[in-house]
Amino acid sequence: MKIAFIGLGNMGGGMAANLVKAGHEVHAFDLSPDALTRAAENGCATYTSAREAVQGAEAVVSMLPNGKIVESVYTHDVIGQAPASALLLDCSTIDVDTARKVAQAAETAGYAMVDAPVSGGIAAANGGTLTFMVGGSDAAFARAEPILSAMGKAVIHAGASGAGQAAKICNNMILGATMIATCEAFALAEKLGLDLQTFYDISSKASGQSWSMTSYCPVPGVGPASPADNGYQGGFAAALMLKDLNLAIEAAASAGAKVPMGTRAGQLYEEFAAAGNGATDFSGIIKTL
Ligand code: NAD
């Protein structure tokens, strides 16, 4: 299949390479010359504009930094430029309202579009083991599924347009809040004289258990290997957690939902990132507690 790919950064670079490996003809565009050089090394054909890359495409995949950029790229360079038969898949993490607005504009112009944000970081993008949460019609999902499967281990239909973004930010709001709660509990346990491995052995089998504890323990040397064992490098950057929490807080304001824990988690990650820890793994927030 001829697939245009726009945004070949940390995540998109590996995703596009996996589409090539699956036998697709990938037409790549990124504003960064370095990203384009890497894409060419991975077997993509490269273009000097998004408009050129989408010519004749059967599908367009994007992996871009934020909603403003996604809206601008689709409005100016994809809609009306790609064939109307092309399926449009935006895999970026963006706000629900923009995702719905862009999909509506695409549908008005005759395209099928899905929002398909991912769970999993750069290693999962490179390894083809991402989880995709997809928002769009049943027909659009059926067309998107085989394309996304070439880049991930799970492709889940979350609901109508925008539902993929909604699932992603609700999930990451739980993650942000449970990580801080887990960090607090370990810090308190230590001050109360508990051995941290012993506390892990108890809480990981008791009602305090969560993914943040048993899959991504913020204490070095406790639980399975995690960024804590690597000086809180790699993994999921605090700045990206903050981005997702802010999207959840904005969505809550727009939908009239109360998210006091998500809001507090956002404030704490804001302070953590502002103190120069934006690139640190999000579990590194334990150092502030
Ligand atoms: P990145 O900054 O590494 O990549 C984004 C790429 O988009 C860059 O190469 C940039 O040059 C390009 N770009 C920006 N504006 C453009 C435009 N107008 N036209 C073409 N290219 C343009 O970011 P990333 O880490 O790859 O993240 C991409 C998306 O994936 C974000 O929405 C992020 O929230 C989401 N995400 C990231 C991770 C992660 O661990 N990095 C995990 C899950 C989801």
Q: What do these coordinates show?
A:
- With 289 residues, the protein is an alpha/beta fold.
- The protein folds into two domains: 2-160, Rossmann fold (3-Layer(aba) Sandwich); 166-288, N-(1-d-carboxylethyl)-l-norvaline Dehydrogenase, domain 2, CATH 1.10.1040.
- Helices cover 49% and strands 14% of the residues.
- The protein has twelve helices and nine strands.
- A six-stranded parallel sheet has the order 3-2-1-4-5-6, sandwiched between helices. Strands 7-8-9 form a three-stranded mixed sheet.
- Strand 4, helix 4 and strand 5 form a beta-alpha-beta unit.
- The longest helix has 29 residues, at 163-191.
- The N and C termini lie far apart (51 Å).
- Nicotinamide-adenine-dinucleotide is lined by residues 6-12, 29-32, 35, 50, 63-65, 69, 73, 92-93, 118, 121-122, 236, 240, 243.
Return the CATH class of the largest domain.
Alpha Beta
Radius of gyration: 20 Å
Average the pLDDT over all residues and give the rounded result.
97
CATH topology of the largest domain: Rossmann fold
What's the CATH superfamily of the largest domain, by name? NAD(P)-binding Rossmann-like Domain
Oligomer: single chain
| Fraction of residues in β-strands | 5-15%
Q: Trace the largest sheet across and list its strands.
A: 3-2-1-4-5-6
Derived from helix and strand composition plus strand pairing, the structural class reads alpha/beta
Order of helices and strands: EHEHEHEHEHEEHEHEHHHHH
**What is the share of helical residues?**
40-55%
Please give the domain count.
2
Terminal residue distance = 51 Å
* Number of separate helices: 12
CATH architecture group name of the largest domain: 3-Layer(aba) Sandwich
